[in-house]
Amino acid sequence: MMTGKLVYIVGASGAGKDTLLSIARSRMDAFPVAFAHRYITRPADGTGETHIPLTTAEFTQRLERGLFALHWDSHGYRYGVGREIDLWLTAGLLVVVSGSRAVLTEAVRRYPGLQVVEIAASPAVLRQRLLARGRESGSDIEERLAGAAIDLSGVEGLIVIDNGGPPDIAGNRLTEVLRANLPDNGIGPR
User: Fold this and answer.
1) d(CA 53, CA 39)
2) Which helix (H) or strand (E) holds 146?
3) Looking at 21-86, which runs of residues are DSSP E strands?
4) How much of the chain is in helix, strand and coil states, percent to nearest 5?
5) 190 pLDDT above the threshold of 60
6) Which residue(s) pair with 186 in the sheet?
7) Angstrom distance (rounded) from CA 125 to CA 116
8) pLDDT for 63-106, tens place per residue?
9) How confident is the model at residue 152 (pLDDT cuts 50, 70, 90)?
10) Which domains are assigned to the chain?
């Protein structure tokens, strides 16, 4: 039985999810929380999120063996979140996942009671950040910006954090949301 709680973070490319997750992680050391890593068929380049790079063959092997709790394809890459999150939830931890809006329905189905948090920024801010990271071509940036307009307002209990300003402000807000979602199961401070 899962006694933990899942917080599912979503947002458009360039919204600053990784930055805010890094801030929140640094402020949650004393709490029973696990930040899930993602498995991605993209080499680690040291400029973006910390992830576990896999070849396409490695990803496919893991997928075929049921090792991903959630998985999706986006912008030519494959992404997965490992089944270890189920162990962490069973252990009573708050589990934080940087997910995808593409599999949000599946996440809600598999993890009833999860908290969805959308990290948001204006199209101008998204464009500026995507250009600054230098990972995508002009047409790739336009494709990512077009996909940014997904409306999540119908998601029950959705919390939206505006990350258009200083990251510390939005990082503080995300930390507050995580602390408010700590499972009330007696395994750590609240």
Assistant:
1) 6
2) helix 138-147
3) 33-35, 38-40, 52-53, 68-74, 77-82
4) 35, 20, 40
5) no
6) none
7) 22
8) 999 999 999 998 889 999 999 999 999 999 999 999 999 999 99
9) confident
10) 5-180 (3.40.50.300)
As a whole number of angstroms, the distance between CA 108 and CA 122 comes to 26
By C-alpha distance, which of 88, 18, 6 is closest to 51?
18
Instruction: Give the integer Cα–Cα distance in Å for 129 and 163.
Output: 12
92: alpha, beta or left, given left = phi > 0 and alpha = psi -120 to 50? left
Sequence letter at residue 139: S
Q: CA-CA distance, 163 to 47, in Å (whole number)? A: 19
* Rg (the chain; Cα; Å): 16
Query: Do the beta carbons of residue 144 and residue 129 sit within 8 Å?
Result: no
**Cα atoms found within 13 Å of the Cα of residue 155, Cβ hemisphere only:** 25
Contacts of 123 (CB under 8 A, 6+ apart): 145, 148
What is the length of the chain? Answer: 190
What is the C-alpha to C-alpha distance for residues 129 and 122, in angstroms, rounded to an integer?
11
